[in-house]
């Protein structure tokens, strides 16, 4: 799969979300960070904004739920128009059941892990998912510095995906920029969330293209990609 770039609207102008979505029309997905001020110490947006944004853009929405009780709320984001819904395994009461419910409603099911959460205990859950998100910063705020110590975890996750022969996307979120995206791609990531690196650029659309090109070049040389 070609690398995908998902600009995070957390770094966009919330008063102009429709325009900000159009500014990155060449992106693969729009990444929507939903925070409840409980699971993470920040409050962003919810179902009504996702509904409005889904009507305002043709770019599919990738909703990342940094919230408590995702088992209750995640299905509502599918109904609101999200094409992919990510829940945190640390917050989910029944992750397999939730992933199946998200899929049954017609969206891609994704599970996220905070930096301190290991992947190994969840190996058996991977076939239930369409994407796994490795957080490369602590969730809650945009603009944080990339955590290099997450690279081995990305590699181990890619090895598990390959071990089981899964068509599972591997997303990274946090501090992804022109200076870090190649390391993430080399380690095994193929979906990249970028906030400040896109919306902080003079030309967000060009920033998306440049990030995708960097990721593609690194993937072409990566050992994990050569094995496919």
UniProtKB/TrEMBL annotation:
Catalysis: reaction(s): D-ribulose 5-phosphate = D-xylulose 5-phosphate
UniProt-listed Enzyme Commission number(s): 5.1.3.1
Entry-linked CDD domains: RPE (cd00429)
Active site: 33, 173
Enzyme class: isomerase
Pathways per UniProt: Carbohydrate degradation
PROSITE patterns recorded: RIBUL_P_3_EPIMER_1, RIBUL_P_3_EPIMER_2
Record-listed a divalent metal cation binding positions: 31, 33, 64, 173
Keywords for the protein's UniProt record, in alphabetical order: Carbohydrate metabolism, Isomerase, Metal-binding
GO molecular function, one term: D-ribulose-phosphate 3-epimerase activity
Pfam family, one: Ribul_P_3_epim
Cofactor binding, note field: Binds 1 divalent metal cation per subunit.
Superkingdom assignment: Bacteria
Role description: Catalyzes the reversible epimerization of D-ribulose 5-phosphate to D-xylulose 5-phosphate.
NCBIfam families hit by this protein: PRK05581.1-4, rpe
Family named by the database record: Belongs to the ribulose-phosphate 3-epimerase family.
Protein name as it appears in the record: Ribulose-phosphate 3-epimerase
Gene: rpe
């Amino acid at each position: 799969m070609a690398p995908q770039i998902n600009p995070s609207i957390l770094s966009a102008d919330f008063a102009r979300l429709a325009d900000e979505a159009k500014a990155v029309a060449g992106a693969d997905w729009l990444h929507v960070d939903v925070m409840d001020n409980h699971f993470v110490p920040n409050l962003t947006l919810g179902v009504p904004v996702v509904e409005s944004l889904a009507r305002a853009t043709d770019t599919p929405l990738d909703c990342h739920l940094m919230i408590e009780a995702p088992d209750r709320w995640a299905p509502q984001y599918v109904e609101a128009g999200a094409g992919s819904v990510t829940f945190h395994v640390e917050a989910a009461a029944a992750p397999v059941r939730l992933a199946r419910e998200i899929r049954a409603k017609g969206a891609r099911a994704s599970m996220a892990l905070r930096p301190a959460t290991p992947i190994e205990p969840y190996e058996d859950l991977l076939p239930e998912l369409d994407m796994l998100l490795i957080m490369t910063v602590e969730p809650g705020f945009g603009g944080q510095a990339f955590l290099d110590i997450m690279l081995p975890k990305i590699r181990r996750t890619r090895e598990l995906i390959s071990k089981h022969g899964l068509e599972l996307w591997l997303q990274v979120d946090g501090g992804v920029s022109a200076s870090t995206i190649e390391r993430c791609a080399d380690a095994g990531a193929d979906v990249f969330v970028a906030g400040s690196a896109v919306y902080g650029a003079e030309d967000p659309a060009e920033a998306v293209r440049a990030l995708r090109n960097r990721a593609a070049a690194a993937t072409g040389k990566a050992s994990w990609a050569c094995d496919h």
